[in-house]
Amino acid sequence: MRLDQFAKFTRLVLALSLAPTLTLSIHAQDNQDKKPDPKAESKPDAPKPENKLPADATISQSIQVDGHTLKYNVTVGTITLKDTDGKPTGEVVYTAYTVPGNGTEPNIARPVTFALNGGPGASSVYLNFGAIGPKRIIFGNPGDSPSDPATLNDNPGTWLDFTDLVFIDPIGTGFSRSLVPLDQAKKLFYSPTPDIQYLSLVIYDWLVKNSRLTSRKYFVGESYGGFRGPRITHYLQSQLGVALNGVTLVSPYLNPAADEMGNLSPLPWMLSLPSIAAANLERQHKLTPETMADVIAYTRGEYATDLLAGHSNPESNDRLIKKVTELTGLDPTFVRYAGGRLDIGAYLREVHRSEGKIGSVYDSNVSAFDPFPFSPTQQSNDPLLESIIAPTTTAMVDFVTRIVGWKTDNRYYALSYDVNSEWDNSGNDLRKGSVDDLRQAVAADPKLRVSVVHGWNDLSCPFMGSILTVDQMPIMGDTNRVQVHEYPGGHMFYTRPDSSQQLKKDIQDMYAKH
Q1: What is the pTM of this model?
Q2: pLDDT digits (tens, 9 = 90+) for 268-288
Q3: What's the CATH number of domain 4-257+424-512, 3.30.1300.10, 3.40.50.1820, 3.40.50.1370, 3.40.50.720?
Q4: Is 416 helix (H, G, I), strand (E, B) or coil?
């Protein structure tokens, strides 16, 4: 997921060209062979040599899915990254859920799906315990509290009944860590292109390590993980010789340049208005696909036309103010002063102001009391982020160390603000997005299928951006190969049971087409 505290950061250019001398190769090796650099800095991303990570650990569990018992194995394991000289540079920790075949052989007939969250700086715990893993905890919805019991229960929305699942924590997140000094880690791990290269190699290495190269292969990425998805797919396809069968992009940060068009373009306001309208419809208990179709049609038509008219047609401006006020439920004076162009930050402070609360950029109907209500700008962290770090961290650390038995006293980072702040933003990789890679990957493989899935209320990665982006892609064979689906909820819409079930059905349909 994307860190709201760095929303402006993720709208800036993030890139770094990987120098040839820093090209990574990755090899799995036993825990006994790990030799961290003794000169490494004593920081979270440069641990001391004696802090060795445990050997891989596996346990057996079961879950009730649709009235049937599904037995599976959970493995918490490590893949070691090495430079071209064979020197360890980092350790990537993953959590894999696999349904065994007959005997001891891997069940290669089952698909395998690799999952990444975003940030940059987020571990994969949110997709794991919130969306598609076999266990889930309650978090991220209106009324949820950080101090609620972090109790794991069977997840009826899990994808494990139709695919094995491998959740990957990038370097600096979860228990994954760099073994080199920070300046070198930034070049190897903390910028868009190296990030894509080493994570692609982790996927390749896991497939080799577990004899799964011939299985059907899929990827799911959330938020910045959605930015990663097309690039990883294309890199695996064109550089590592691994072809994915399908890709799911959850609330993706797909086309960052779309909201950087300035005051002359209607696009930034077109992207955010439908999500603000969705939140208002939900508060009125009127949110349906039909009401949202009307909102989308207005946004693409009359709203865009009236925005472009500017001062040339006073009637257009009055019509725009009236309609936007009606759609959003906001104070008409606020809408008029904003010119019908609703800045996300201003809206989040305005929507719950009468209650002394502030809305979340990930779902503006998730709110918290504003500790600094008289400040001209927001001074607190995002309400949703403040509420999810404690339960997800508690649940994951307890699951890994107590239940699976993978014992370590290293710190676990559900969200790493250090990784986010150290992320290199000196180039142009992020600004151009990952749409070019998406187009090339789809063009190269006529059987590749892509599902782009969003919550209607999300203002961090608005669904309208993906709709407009996909509509501009050329038709390459089957028009249904790249689809956009929307659901009630926000950035993590999957935490809502109904949305989770519909998401599962839509993705299972995609998998069934192979």
Answers
A1: 0.84
A2: 899 999 999 999 999 999 999
A3: 3.40.50.1820
A4: coil
